User: Fold these one by one.
Assistant:
Number 1:
Amino acid sequence: MPSKEEIFAKVQEALVDALGVDDDEVTPDATLVGDLGAESIDFLDIVFRLEKAFDINIDRAEMFPEDILTNAEYVEDGKVTPAGVAELKKRMPFADLTKFEKDPNVQNFGQLLTVSDMCRYVETKVGVAG
Amino acid sequence: MRWYWIDRFLEFQSGSHAVTIKCVSLVEEEFEDYVPGHPLMPGSLNIEGFAQTGGLLVGEHGGFTKRVVLAKVSKAIFHEYAKPGDVLRYTCTLGEFNDNGANVNCVSHIISPDPEERLHCEAELMFGHVPPQPGIPDEMFEPQEFLSMIRIFGMYDVLVDAEGNRKPPPQHLLDAEREKLAEYAM
């Protein structure tokens, strides 16, 4: 089972390769879209690299639940409804949604995911030592 | 792919890898405007060769039932320019593949006319599977035209499955071709 440091190092490498950014830009608090410039196609690239690095299968909808954000049942006037936020929390236990909950504008969602969130997601898949 | 940037398939193992060749010729239009007086093949056209070879590798693995588009050039390293008279060999190897897309590792070598082959370019490409969308045709090509094109490339002369057995075109392409031929015969 890898340590938290080993998981971070591999996630960092995947993001450096997928996004063409420098190692020192990939800090735990960096957001994928806002700070590292990820675009939608990059998420597929990131998924592939993490699958290979950790020998895991990733359901893209699990990590990037775009289906919730485009579902009329969960979005009203461009904002995710409380039911939608509850669904996001259920789907993304690894992500800290506190900030998003205060202003659940769909457009803010892209700014949400951080490098730490990605590491926590991987931890849920592979476990973590210590 | 409405125009050809590969000349022929040399190898094709379904779900694994594909190898093509491209013969660079002075008659090609890019040499008129790209560094006039110094005929050099632009690196972007080499990516096109990878995209055509790799795109067919990805499409074939999906039974030619998904719309495959080049979505991202994740990495590209150009070691030297190809020139008229050079023969390039493109080797594309399938990496990850799922419902959303695939990534492909690509390498090209200049294999002729110099007796010793040289590394030419290395790249990683990502292809997306584009889902059906309103206003966009379900198929990017007329199926019978597509089948004709990949036959021109000699793909079915070399295509084998994982066990090395020859693999014919998928039935839906053959059916489309048969229907079109029946229309012409009427």
Number 2:
Amino acid sequence: MKQDPTYIRYQRQTILPGWGDVAQHKLLSASVLVIGAGGLGCPVLQYLAAAGVGCIGIADGDLVSLTNLHRQVLFGMEDIGKPKASTAALKLKALNPNIGYKVFDEDITSENAINMMRGFHLVVDGSDNFATRYLVNDACVLLQIPLVFGAISQFEGQVTVFNVPCGEEGHCIQYRDMFPQPPAAGEVLNCAEAGVIGVLPGIIGSLMANEAIKLLSGVGKSLSGSLLTYHALTNQMNTWQLHKRSDSDALVPKTVSDFQNTNYQWLCGIRENVLELDKEQVEEKINKESIQLIDVRGLQEYPELPHWDHIRIPMEDIFSGVELPRSDAFIFVCQSGKRSLQVATWYLEKYEGPTKAFSLKGGIASLI
Amino acid sequence: MKVEFFGQLAELAGAASLDVSDVDSVVALKKWLGEKYPSMSAIGYMVAVNKKMAEGDISLSAEDHIALMPPFSGG
């Protein structure tokens, strides 16, 4: 029995006081979904795979780039241009082939999140933007899945655990207890804009892996109810007692379908990047979703928009409040893409709601 | 009272901490900071009083230790 390779692999932690076969067995029976195989995701994945978490899900739609390598230490030069999630899985299989891996080479969205997360015992958020952080938080609150949270900025990091009862009253703290609403776009910078020291996600990611391992093995005390912060330049480490806000749970979509209809990019003020679609993206959307195409040019303007079913409502009429047909989303088009972008931006500013608005980039001129 | 800044807030304040007097509540402190550093108001930061996160208005005294924590998105 003691010569069993599984026993030998985990022997150094199994002999720990308070660990033993019981805690190891709990880890081997557990499943974790790691969102983002980047700076935080890499160390989280390495330690969870090494420790013997039974099934590890990896979700990331990004490709490895040279600017990643100073902190995303799972990857090497030969991986540049390859998908992060499946590349990470390959490296982890070399480290520990005896556990299961589930690879999602796609970004988590409000459409795919619920299916992606279902069945996992724990989610670890190592994403790199607010839209994903609020989306992951809300999905975990809805599905009641514990969430290990970690985030970094320049030389500082934050770690905590959400959706695990804490304190005397057994409240479950979530991200919206700390920050009820996302900041305005551009107010808080990400790693690409503000920079990050490479070793910091290594430290914060290791702390996240530690929280995940404690939660899954049942050994030790988790950070649930406390926020841990770390400053790499001063080594200052603090824990702050978190508080259950009276309004936080009401900010999370009530049902799976409300959640799926929430545009988190929009909530985080991301407009320009998602607003303009090219011909192929329009085609894809038309085939997948219920979408209304609206030509916003004057009624006398030609040529007629080719290929796609559409209606014509001139921009001036839309601005003066003409009622638009009911639809999950609108794609506005005009001759060059300028007026349609203006209309889409105006629409999103004016009507707060789940309806999405897009603009055909380059306009009808790009189709002909 | 000592007010400590984290993340981007320290950059905006130009210091890791400040001694602030003449404010007696969290709301008054936020208002004072917003006037001194207008770009701080756009960041929805968390306020901790003596290492405990505070919700709403809480009265403050000179001995209190305040920490202001912005959200981080990086990973």
Number 3:
Amino acid sequence: MAKIESGTREEVKKIVYEFFAEECEVSAEVLNEGTNVIKDLEGDSLMFLELLEIFKKKYGLDVELKTVGKYVVKHPAETIGAIINMTMLIIEHENRIADIG
Amino acid sequence: MIPDGPPSVEKKKTASIFPAFGCKYLGNERSILEDMSPDLKELLGRAGDAVGLSGDLLAGSPYGDFSDELISQYAVYLYGCAVSHILKRSGVHSDYTAGYSMGLYAALYHAECITFEQGLECIRVAYGLIRNTASKHDFGMGLISGLPLADVEELVSRSDDLEIINANNRHSFLVSGYDENVRHVLAAARVNGALNIQHLAFRSPYHSRFMNEAAARFREYCSGIRIYDPIYRLVSSVDRRVVTTGDEVLADLADNINHAINWHETMSCMIAAGVDAFIECGPGKSLYKMAKFIEGDFDVYYLHTLSSLLSSGRSCSHAPAFKR
């Protein structure tokens, strides 16, 4: 389980904003936590997969994609804010995210 | 604009890869290509004469959301061929080439196996044969992302008439078969943790055994046209062999109709052969995106980044074409 430190959320936020700005070819300044990745940025699920792999590598996370997938079915995350929140949960709980109701 | 002067010599290998219809357009493909060269306009005129494709049809769907599947296929072929012209004009040598699904036709044009008009005619004939076969049943296709291959295989094995017809990369798989079963397997995949499922708009079970009859007839049709040996190493997405003769091209054309393809392995095969720069020749950047989950040290350039590639000379080489 990765240790959540005081700056972790800010670090995650920075990565998420930079990632979507680059992938969707928009300025990071136009993004906010309410930006819907699918509807506003025409993003797709592969982007989320890529982001997940970035965080798996960065924090050495032990989490299976399908475990995250099962969580996403119950807790869809389409906005940048929701994705940041979910990423924090994944970092904190890894595969145990499946146990979260 | 196309850079002046000879390109610098690079020993690294380059592959030109061609997407299929159904890819999401960036929206400004036409203006990018028309700014680079007169090729798109010239080819569009020829496509108009051959199959009635018009500039108005293209302009009406800048994002590739054509209501007619056949027009959609013509359009992606047209864009692919236009990029092929630009690469050749710019002195970019393709060490390898490959087509994703019906992207094969543009790859064959690029490899100078067929003429531009023959490619259009192949698309028209194949589409007619496929629709004729597919219209007998209610078929469908679906995309499953985020499950390991073994899990997808297990889900698909629950129905006799479902097939995995392509592995895009290590996370994304296409399934095909009777539509009812496609919908069932997509729902099951979601429950099992697929991060994304998508029921595709296509009503034909491309690349599946349901297309056996269409493939046999298409082979018969293709055997009547003159197919030249490829000038580049053409990698079959059906079995990953390097196709070097017109006869092998003929077999690959037919097999492409009723056999599963594997894009992940096709790319891996070229990467293993030393390719470290892929050029996506067509609209959108679907192959660029798929390649993010394919292992290896390589770059994929697409239409938006093509100018920077050409001006850098990064991928240009004067390596001799494959000798027959």
